[in-house]
Amino acid sequence: MNIPSHKELLRIINSKSSFVTIVKGHQCIVEILNRVIIEALPFSHKIEIERLSFKFRVDLAIALGVFNSNTRNAILDINSIRNRFAHDYRARLNAKETKTLLSSMPQNMKSYIMKREGGKPMPQSIIKGAMVLIYINLESSLENLRTGKIRAQVLNEMAEEELKKAWQGREDKLEASAAKIDEEVNKRIKKLR
Fold first, then answer.
1. pTM of structure
2. d(CA 130, CA 64)
């Protein structure tokens, strides 16, 4: 699973073909959404993400706290447009569905598109703008997840090193301290049951 580069994404999004923009642009969103979910799950190898419906993946990303719930309707509107294009060879982008997409976007995305297009965005501009903004949103989540994991790993390694230095020569007290920690953890687990 490869995440498209910005250059690849822009080439797809700026295609003269609505079919390419919508179907392949949606695929770019799917790829990064999958990557975000995999990065957020502690044991992602246990789940076959590709077998989950798109809607379920969106809801899973929201539940994991890695995708903003106020963007849910917009990404699902893009998915509906994509499905129509993928299954109807005569499909054309229309003002009604892109107006619905625009109204389902969070205010900051909507304002960006409206400002960029001089207050009167064309259907093609709405779908392109929505796809790019959602992609960037997911890309930001992915970067935050990766940074957080690295930060946690470094902090853990540094803490372990400092503890080793502090307890050097006092292994018996270290074992007693570890036993107290285990006892407290077990006590709290019992409270949960």
1. 0.83
2. 22
